Structures are given as structure tokens and as C-alpha cells.
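User:
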Amino acid sequence: MNSYKDNGIYIEKAQAGDRDAEEQLIRANYPLAVSLARRFMGRGCELEDLIQLALFGLLKAIKSFDPERGCALSTYAVPLIIGEIRKFLRDDGLIKVSRESKKNSAILLRLREEFSAKHGREPHIDELCSLSGLDRDSVMCALDAQRPVASISEPLTDDGFTVESVLGDGGSSIDKAFMRIALYDALSRLPEQWKKIVIMRYYRDMSQQQTAEALGLSQVKVSREEKKIIAELRKSII
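Assistant: Predicted structure:
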């Protein structure tokens, strides 16, 4: 697996759809992905998530690499891996948070703290609109930007389906990483509205009603779309 000849054979097979060859290439270049991911520690993203992004960049490199370039796959992969991580950090994940939303988020955070200290409770959306002078959509987007990323252990459906259950409890760290790549790839290929629903519901911990209001949909519509999303992810990963 270390020779250029063998590397080229695995690449050819992987690009033809051979998952075993693809996994062999990922295993061989896993230390490189980890090393590059470590460079971005301390920027608000867990190392484990950075590694998954690095591996997704590696997967892109495998799919687009031309052995006739005269360089090693690892050399070609470095800028793609770094680019994938930087893109994620710059865009705050699958949905970009605008500078205006971040600015409004800071204003609303201060107003919420002042309101809570004075009244002993959290302000309602309409109260935040009145205090900030922002419209409802702007307030919802700004509040969304404040929400923490949810755990992969949190249930996505009423039957207890979680991202963690897809990844599995057993297997090596590389096996789990390979499954995480599949999940990230599946999420990245969802329609834009579905991506927004996933982020708001399962990464920002918004209710179906809050998500519906933010997207201009009905709560029933969001519920129906969620079921379609989960079915699509299950089909792509499991």
C-alpha cells in the first residue's frame, strides 16, 4: 500500500465505486488527516469534528485525484483537506451565519440578560423585537446563531433514532470515522431547505414551531419534511 503503483491501483478502484479500496486509502492517509485537523484546534470546533471534516476533504481528493499528476495522493490531498476545514469554520457549518446575524445576536444576548435580571424570566420573541427594533425574522435568525451544537446522542425521531446509532458502538475509530464521512456527505447533498431544517432542529435545538416560523412554513410541513429527511439519511447511510 506504500508503493506508488499500489496506490494508483487503489485509487482507480475507489474512483470506480469500490468502497473497500476507498476505505483502504482513507486508512492509509488517516494520520495525515488527523495531523492537519490538529492545526485548527481552539477555533470553536471539537477535534473529532475537525477530523471528520479532514477525512471528508480526503475523500474528495480520492475522487478527483489523477495518478498521472506525478505526485502522491497525500500531497494532492493536503490543500483539499485544509480547504474543507477552513470552509466549514468560515461558513459555520452547513448554513452560513451572516455578519449581521452575529451582530444582532450579540445585541439580543445583552438585551436578554438585562430583561431577565429585571423581570426574572426570559423575554418572549415579540418582546425582543420591541426592545431591539428588529423584525421577527431577524430576531429568529440571530437567536439561531446563538444556539449550541447538539450531541450526536440526542434522538432525531420518536423511535429513538440518533446519529450515534448510525455510527455504531463497536469498531475502530477509523471505522467510525468512515461512517461519519458518509453522514457528512449525505447531509451535504440534501436540498438547501432540508439542510436548514436539520441545522435548526438538531444542531440549534429549535422546536418544530420555531423552525416553521423561521422558514415561513407550517409546523405540519416541517414535521412532514423531517420524516422525509430521516428516511433519506437512513437510506444513504444504513
